[in-house]
Design goal:
heterodimer; A: 6 helices; disordered N terminus; B: 17 helices
């Protein structure tokens, strides 16, 4: 279940995968459970908003963003403490209101601000990078119907890179679990790749 | 009382009225920015830009001539600039409180107001940052406040509260901006997918980053959002505390008090909510969003204002008590001078607006009257501006009568202040014209049908769920709020 699993171009396949629409959040959760139980790994459930319980239904692990941010904040803390120690205690020694050079109590607001600032930047950009964004082109956007995911559409997509993927079987499986508007997503390959595929 | 009656009594009014479907939510909120630009908008924008021109002009002249054009002098070396700085930073705090603290406390009603409150925060902090920036007089060397290696081999003084301010407010601005942007990503995707014109599609598409709403994206997104809320929460308390140390670490009577940090924070939230109220009332009326920003929301905000107003009033009382109890003649004089000295009127404007006006919110009639709450919200912000004015004006009479003086703002002070409103409203009007002023994805999330257990109510066992979800399901059936609805799973 790698993060890179939905990158279709590297496989040289022309079919990105299959999508099916479901009626509402509850149906999508149940569909996710069935897709998971059927043994598919490289699938995703698209919804206009996050649905509670979807991680379990899809059999997904917790996001690592928390550990990344925690580590970054830790490094930032030691980084800024050492930086200020160097600036005030070594590089630029000045006696100000008769306080010790490294009067760390007065630096707490700065330590704090830097930890927060680093955490916010790492949380935002960490999330973006883990999500492999920005990725302005995505094969799913080929489908006219799919764009409703950002309005009121609930979709399951199964990628052709999944070992269990079989176009006909996957299509009928999705129909079998209550999916409507089942659609095969085709991707135009770049010329070079096309030649290789032939 | 039977259990059933007990449940009945605690039923909250629906967060969103009119029982909209998911598609309705998109439509209602997106139409505000997709429709033709209203004439009112152009009128307001014209006014705002005119005021912005005043700002550009007065700041330009300031840079040319120096801060002598302001009414600053000894003993009052800090005038309108610091008053406006503190006031604008304070305004911002409500946005962060709504977006971060109310999120962590699962106050789902925050969802209707968080987007434009966050926008308000960002624009208010921009206005705030302007003032210390121009107050240094030599704006072209403002980067000296930052610890950058330079050929002079100099470093800033990290013991100075003014430097802490730079870090605190800079961090605050960056965090607020990132938090706001992260919240906007799914809505950018919505606007991208709805856009008819190619230019719009590309413009919104760039900011949407290619969002496709898959749970593999949502799970990272939600955790990042939760973390941003978590780290913004201490900022609500820390930023204005640090701002207050600008005053509190000095050894001037009336300033050197430990009550300043909590008192500033309460005041900040108080004035910020008043500003959210002012903007919210206008926007819900103009854009017909009464079903999203309901009377229930407004009433809750009024309750917050009542609470924080009382805290501020309590702080005013404590200041006087401490001055008396200290037995320090300078301290006692400073406070007597505030209330009965030459600037007595500013003190009593502050008391009337900040302490007396919110008392009306004890009554449901006042809490649910649009007219009253609109007037009150403006009065509160006037009062909060005067609070900072009163603090600064304490400088006019310090230890020695021979050193006493006056402070009167000049026309440039006024123009800069009016201009900062121009900057704020220009940005805010651009925001409501091009971005959804209510978080579309988050609103859908608090609708009852967004809960995957919604339609199974009363159907008994929901077999398909793993063990842990069962208790959760039961909780949903009994009508408790779903913790996921704030957004996090």
């Amino acid at each position: 279940m790698s993060l890179f699993s939905q990158m279709p171009i590297s496989t040289g396949s022309k079919t990105y995968g299959v999508i099916a629409e479901f009626k509402d959040p509850a149906d999508l959760v149940h569909a996710a459970e069935k897709v998971r139980d059927a043994g598919y790994k490289e699938f995703d459930c698209h919804s206009p908003f996050p649905i509670h319980g979807m991680d379990d239904a899809m059999g997904q692990k917790r996001s690592p963003v928390g550990y990344i941010v925690g580590t970054a904040a830790f490094i930032a803390f030691f980084g800024i403490v050492l930086t200020l120690y160097w600036i005030t205690g070594i590089e630029y020694k000045f006696v100000i209101s008769a306080k010790p050079y490294f009067s760390f109590q007065a630096f707490v607001p700065v330590f704090f601000a830097i930890c927060i600032l680093t955490s916010a930047i790492v949380a935002t950009f960490g999330m973006i990078v883990i999500n492999r964004l920005p990725q302005w082109f995505h094969p799913l956007f080929e489908s006219e119907n799919f764009t409703r995911f950002s309005d009121d559409g609930f979709f399951v997509s199964i990628a052709s890179t999944d070992p269990k993927f079989d176009l006909a079987a996957t299509r009928s499986f999705l129909e079998g679990i209550g999916g409507t508007n089942v659609e095969t997503i085709e991707v135009e390959l770049p010329e070079k790749k096309k030649a290789e595929a032939h | 009382m039977s259990a059933e009656q007990h449940v009945e009594r605690h039923v909250e009014p629906p967060l969103i009225k009119g029982k909209p479907r998911f598609a309705d939510v998109t439509e209602h909120i997106a139409r505000v920015i997709e429709g033709k630009t209203a004439k009112t908008w152009f009128l307001l924008f014209g006014l705002a830009v005119s005021a912005l021109m005043l700002l550009i002009g007065s700041v330009g002249y300031l840079v040319w001539e120096g801060i002598g054009i302001w009414g600053l002098n000894i003993p009052v070396g800090w005038g309108f600039a610091i008053v406006n700085f503190v006031w604008w930073v304070g305004i911002g705090h409500a946005g962060t409180l709504i977006s971060a603290i109310l999120y962590l406390f699962r106050q789902r009603w925050r969802t209707s107001i968080n987007r434009f409150a966050e926008a308000m925060t960002i624009f208010a902090v921009i206005c705030a940052l302007l003032f210390p920036g121009i107050h240094v007089g030599r704006i072209w060397v403002i980067y000296w406040v930052m610890p950058l290696p330079n050929q002079m081999a100099m470093w800033p003084n990290f013991r100075s509260p003014l430097l802490w301010d730079m870090f605190a407010v800079g961090t605050y601005f960056t965090c607020s901006l990132l938090f706001w942007y992260v919240g906007l990503i799914p809505d950018f995707a919505t606007l991208r997918d709805r856009a008819k014109k190619r230019v719009k599609k590309i413009a919104y598409g760039i900011f949407a980053l290619g969002w496709h709403g898959g749970n593999r994206q949502w799970k990272h997104y939600e955790l990042a959002y939760l973390i941003l809320a978590g780290i913004s929460t201490p900022l609500v308390l820390s930023v204005h505390s640090i701002v207050s140390t600008d005053f509190a670490t000095s050894i001037l009577p009336g300033w050197h008090t430990t009550i300043f940090p909590p008192y500033f924070v309460a005041g900040a939230i108080f004035s910020g909510f008043a500003m959210v109220m002012t903007l919210g009332i206008i926007c819900r009326k103009i854009f017909k969003l009464e079903n999203y920003i309901t009377m229930n929301h407004l009433e809750k905000m009024n309750k917050v204002m009542l609470l924080t107003g009382m805290m501020v009033g309590y702080a005013y009382g404590t200041e006087f008590f401490t001055a008396w109890y200290s037995g320090n003649p300078y301290e006692m004089f400073a406070f007597a001078n505030r209330a009965f000295g030459p600037y007595w009127w500013s003190y009593w404007i502050m008391i009337a607006c900040n302490v007396l006006v919110p008392q009306a919110f004890w009554f449901k009639k006042a809490r649910t009257s649009i007219t009253w709450m609109f007037i009150a919200s403006i009065l509160i912000n006037v009062g909060m501006w005067f609070e900072r004015y009163v603090i600064v004006i304490t400088l006019t009479r310090d230890y020695l009568p021979s050193a006493w003086g006056w402070y009167w703002p000049t026309v440039w002070d006024w123009m800069t202040m009016i201009g900062s409103f121009g900057l704020f409203f220009t940005l805010f009007l651009l925001f409501i014209r091009w971005l959804p002023m209510i978080a579309i994805a988050e609103i859908k999330n608090v609708l009852p049908q967004a809960n995957p257990h919604h339609k199974h109510k009363g159907e008994g066992k929901d077999h398909a769920h793993p063990a842990g979800a069962e208790a959760k399901h039961q909780a949903d059936v009994t009508g408790k709020p779903n913790p996921a609805m704030g957004g996090t799973g």
